[in-house]
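Usage example:
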Amino acid sequence: MTLTDYLILSGLLFSIGVFGVLTRKNAIAVLMGVELMLNSANINLVAFCKFVDTGVSGQVFALFSIVIAAAEVAVALAIVIAIYKATRTIDLDKEDTLKG
Amino acid sequence: MFSFIEHYIWLIPLLPLLGAATNLLIGRRLSHTAVNVIAVGSISISFILSVLVYIHLISLPVNERHFVDTVYTWIGLGSFQVGLSFLVDPLSTVMILVVSGVGSVIHLYSVGYMHDDKRYSRYFGFLNLFAFAMLLLVLSNSILLMFVGWEGVGLCSYLLIGFWFEKIENARAGMKAFVVNRIGDFGFIVGFILLFTSMGLKTGTWTLDFGVIKSNINLIPVSVLTIVGIMLFVGATGKSAQIPLYVWLPDAMAGPTPVSALIHAATMVTAGVYMVARMNFLYVLAPDALRVIAIVGALTAFFAATIGLVQNDIKKVLAYSTVSQLGYMFIGVGVGAFSAGIFHLMTHAFFKALLFLGAGSVIHAMSGEQDIRKMGGLAKKLPITTSTFIIATLAITGVPGFAGFFSKDDILYNAYISPYGGKFVWALGVTGAVLTAFYMTRLVILTFYGNPRMDHHTAEHIHESPKTMTIPLIILAILSVIGGYIGMPEAFGVHNVFAEFLSPVFASNFNLPEGSISLEWMLMGVSVLAALLGIGLGYYFYAVNTELPDKLAEKFHTTYTWLLNKYYVDEFYLKYIVGGVMKLKDILALFDLGIIDGAVNGAAKLGRKLSEFDGAFDRVVVDGAVNAVGDGIISAGSILRKLQTGLVQNYLIFAIIGLAILLSFVLL
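Running the assembly step on the lines above writes:
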């Protein structure tokens, strides 16, 4: 397994995440896409750490990122619940209150 | 003696002016007593000062009896100077004595007569103002200052005739007096301005002072002087109620009776006679003007007397007798006998004031009734009024021994011998004297004798007037008797003191032809016969054969109606003069509406059109530009706002597209 294989994997994951974020109507699904994009970045961090740097700093970075992603998901889900309470839906196409 | 008075002449008119100012400004807050003291006091002090002036004047040599007291320069334009200066000479001295003397008596009488009036202080203020204006008129040293007084008496007559303005007739009478006087004043203004300019152009002396005019008068052509004289006389016909401007005087009866006395006796109407006498140096050079004055005077004396024959209002009879007597004064000054005219002015002031005050006393007793047909038998109840009234009647009719006899005789004698008068004027005067005697006798008999004709209620209230009213009557009665003796004719073998006193004023180069003593006696006899004839006829008509007047009135119905309606002169004036003015007014109104208003409206319309165009430019171009900018911004905004969809995913797409573009720059 070379570095390139890891990068391709992470690139595929990132692309799937972006696609999900842009196309899903459901807010939860969009959040899931965001998680895919974050994790593809984590794979990159770990892969570069193993093949280029030889230390453990990249892995530590990945751990920090996972923790922060957890916090981010907690906040995001709370927002989604609040939106649901206010509008009785989490369909993003219908959430256009800020339309100009 | 009293030479200090030369520097205090200004006090004589000033005191009544101060009295007027006080009473008009703060009089309402003063008690009646205070008002009386101010009003009667001021005019009385003026009278005392006038007496001092007289005493001082006679102490001087005859040719020095003339001085001017200049207070300050009123108008000073280079060499043209009009001073507030007072001229004292025998003529003005006689006038101030008459005005302030008779004026004081009338003021005193008013205290009783106006006792219950609600505008008491205002009445006395006006009365004082009247006296002030008249004193200013007679004392002034220039025509311009005289004109101020001249207008002042006109104003005061308006104020006092319309004093009881609650009744519209009274207010109208006041206006009539004022307007008729204004017509005369117009002539007066034209006269003195013509004199002023022609003298200025001819001699280079621009002046209105009597003295300077007098010394330059010879340089002006006679034709100009004649016109000036006649124009000034037009002014006099207005003030002194001569044909054709006499119509205001009978209506002036609307004022309180003492005012009538003041207007008819002491002030106002004598102004015209005084003016002609004052301008004697002009008139002697303009014989045609003198002839006009004499003829107008004679006609007025006659026609006013005929109207007086049939009037039934006690004051109306007296009013027409005043017009008639003023006619005599104008005969006097018109035939060149200036001192005779002034003499009659003075005696007339005494007896006419007495007649009016007596009439006031009668009206007072009759609770305001003025119709002599509703009087009668008052002699027993009003002894003082009756006796003084009879003395005045004897004086006005010209019974020998009373004041009117001497003055009227003086005038008629001069009218007969003067080249400006002649037999026609004299005959009119004598006929007028018969008529005067007749209507005065009629007035006395109908008022004071015969059976009482008033209703029971009025009869019970008849009482003699209070002392403040009877004392003036007695004073004037005494003057009406003795006033004539200062001017006794030379036929009596004495000097005519009055004429001699006045002679320095009147042109020395002008002498009437000498009549003979026998002619004078004869004319005097005719005058006396005329008076007695009039009295006899009056007595016969109204005391003996009392049905005769009514029969005659029925027989000569047309004549009677004409007389009763005063020859319809008022109606004629109303229809043709006032009507003519009204027509002119309509034409002028049309001109005003059509042309002036048209021009104004046209200008306005043009302005409106211009502003409409301007407004359109504003709306279309200026507003269009402003709105276009706004609209552009709005439409740009409405396009751009669509970017703001409110959908999170759209924003992300934009972000990614932006990222892609950035990356493409970096990588490629």
